[in-house]
């Protein structure tokens, strides 16, 4: 009996420490950040990973933002996510209308610095 208890405890410890045990990923989405504008004609498209429900700082200069169609980490369906850009890191000065996979935020014809981004689920999948 004592041997089986020790073996059970040992097996449980190995399972808890095993890197093969799948852990829940932090829910996040990919944002497509377009950096081409009048003042930056050779800009490109960059991807920013944003965790859901967490204000995230970014200093990237952009002209347009859009939620990527690729589903995010943590089983998130990006079609049910909405984001917003803020001009400041604290998220107090709104910098864009809400944007998603079908309606991008057209920020400016010149590049503008992102202060922060906030994304959240608007519908359950």
For this entry, give a set of tags.
single chain; 125 residues; alpha+beta; Gamma-B Crystallin, domain 1; four-stranded antiparallel β-sheet; three-stranded antiparallel β-sheet; 13% helix; 30% strand
Q: What profile does the largest beta sheet have?
A: 4 strands, antiparallel
CATH class: Mainly Beta
Report how far the terminal alpha carbons are from each other: 48 Å
CATH architecture: Sandwich
Low-confidence residue ranges: 3-7, 9-22
- Please count the helical segments: 1
Order of helices and strands: HEEEEEEEEE
SSE class: alpha+beta
Query: Would you report the number of β strands?
Result: 9
Lateral arrangement of strands in the main beta sheet: 2-1-5-7
Tally of structural domains = 1
Strand composition percent: 25-35%
Here the CATH topology equals: Gamma-B Crystallin, domain 1
Rounded Rg: 20 Å
Structural description of this entry:
This protein is α+β, with helices and mostly antiparallel strands and 125 residues long. The chain has one domain: Gamma-B Crystallin, domain 1 (Sandwich), CATH 2.60.20. It contains one helix and nine strands. The protein has one helix at 2-17; strands at 28-34, 45-51, 56-57, 61-62, 64-67, 81-86, 105-106, 112-113, 116-121. The chain is globular and about 40 Å long. The protein starts with a helix and ends with a strand. Residues 3-7 and 9-22 have low confidence and may be disordered. Keywords: Signal.
């Amino acid at each position: 009996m004592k041997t089986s208890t020790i073996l059970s405890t040992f097996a449980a410890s190995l399972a808890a420490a095993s890197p093969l045990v799948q852990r829940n990923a932090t829910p996040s989405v990919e944002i497509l950040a377009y950096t081409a504008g009048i003042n930056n004609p050779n800009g490109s498209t960059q991807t920013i990973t944003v965790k859901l429900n967490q204000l995230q700082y970014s200093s990237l200069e952009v002209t347009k933002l859009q939620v990527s169609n690729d589903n995010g980490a943590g089983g998130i369906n990006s079609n049910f996510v909405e984001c917003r850009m803020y001009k400041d890191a604290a998220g107090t000065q709104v910098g864009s209308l809400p944007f998603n996979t079908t309606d991008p935020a057209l920020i400016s014809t010149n590049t503008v610095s992102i202060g922060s981004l906030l994304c959240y689920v608007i519908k359950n999948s």
